């Protein structure tokens, strides 16, 4: 499902290293010499050819806005400045590309000044280990080693993405069990991803070659690449494993259940890219013969949008073993907000609804509220995930106001993605997030 063009799947797929000007913004190459856009100075390119390509594709839409943003910033002293000063200077832009280009602008780790706020001629110097942290000439040139190590992981994972794109033309990888299990092992008995790969899936042969963080510990280059793809693939299959854990939490007899009806609320690019991995529900829950998926949201892909009169479902291709056993996965899509969908003739009460990293307490609150108000007392449980704790705090406040109850209270999700991401202007410098880091389940009425 991944795009063949790294830029058509959305700006969130562009490596952070490119926004931080450690990669060519167009081809993601890592040359010895990069040249900045002379106008905005926010992106860099390895060649005139790449610069022209990106100008026609994206950059001409935002360059003037970034130039104007630079002109708003004047020299400020390095002392007495706080993170909130940097945070409050952020300008909201309507598109992800604009927000990321502005939000990932390098700043001094200690005084929080951007390059346009330094003394005349002064430049930021990048950390030579992680390439994601910068320092101004007036401040010390170091940051905490543990933080730097995590950022090095981000940089390493992004180089895996670049390598994957060069080899396959894709920017995401999916790693799940190749064959269905013969019996159900409760996910509640697992400690995390290492357990999943070595006990639940067919990757047990790597148990002695990687640590619990899925870091390779041997010397074979091909094996190393495979393990790296496994780790990076957790950012995709976190969706399916979190769903299985939620189903186990709400259905006592899940090991004997024959069919499951799931609604994915706010479905967008990430969920569509993970479609093949939904077969993991069949592989890990052997009694299932049918999974019905309904993807509902304003960003449902147009090319998968069903006829609104018939909403004929699509059938996903399953492995040969599942097909021989008569097992199937169908997906129906509906473009619009969930609270409107429930009033259509297509709606059927699901066993579980799920909204992954919705951010409903932070973004588009007015659009989300009618849906959240319904889900607080819906006739089915609903799974929610969030990447950051402040999102959880905000969401808990909304649920308390609506009088909702919980099957599972908010906690860190052991099936979160294992590859970290650098937040865009987070609550603190170099804030790192993990996909589906937090999860909870709202109780049915």
Give a structural overview.
The protein has 445 residues and is an alpha/beta fold. The chain is 33% helix and 13% strand. It folds into 2 domains: 11-168, no CATH class; 187-220 and 233-442, Rossmann fold (3-Layer(aba) Sandwich), CATH 3.40.50. It has 13 helices and 14 strands. The strands form 4 sheets. It has an 8-stranded mixed beta sheet. It is globular. The chain starts with 15 loop residues before the first helix and ends with a strand.
CATH topology of the largest domain: Rossmann fold
Strand content: 5-15%
Class of the largest domain, according to the CATH hierarchy?
Answer: Alpha Beta
The secondary-structure class comes to alpha/beta
Biggest sheet details? 8 strands, mixed
How are the strands ordered across the major sheet?
7-8-6-5-9-10-14-11
Organism: Melanomma pulvis-pyrius CBS 109.77
Keywords: Metal-binding, Zinc, Zinc-finger
Protein name: MYND-type domain-containing protein
GO molecular function: zinc ion binding
Mind sketching the topology for me?
Elements: H1 16-19, E1 35-36, E2 44-45, H2 48-71, H3 83-88, H4 96-103, E3 125-126, E4 134-135, H5 145-168, H6 193-200, H7 221-250, E5 259-265, H8 269-273, H9 280-284, E6 290-297, E7 314-315, H10 320-324, E8 328-335, H11 338-341, E9 352-355, H12 365-375, E10 382-386, H13 389-402, E11 406-412, E12 421-422, E13 432-433, E14 438-442
Parallel strand pairs: 5-6, 5-9, 6-8, 9-10
Antiparallel strand pairs: 1-2, 3-4, 7-8, 10-14, 11-14, 12-13
Helix pairs in contact: 2-4
